[in-house]
Amino acid sequence: MIDSVKVFAPASVANLACGFDVLGLALESPGDEIIARLNPTRIGLTISAITGDEGRLPWDIEFNTAGYAAHRFLEAIGQANLGIDLEIHKKMPFGSGLGSSAASAVGAVYAVGQLLGGEWSKKDLLPFAVLGEQQADGAYHADNVAPSLFGGIVLIRDNQTLDVLQLPVPGDLTVAVIHPQIEILTKEARSILSSSVPLRDMILQTGNMGSFLAGLYTNDYDRIHRSVMDVVIEPQRAKQIPHFYTVKSIAEKSGALGCSISGSGPSIFAFCRGPEHAEQLAQRMADVYSAHGIAVDVFSGSINHVGVQTIG
Question: How far apart are CA 115 and CA 36, in angstroms?
Answer without folding.
Answer: 7
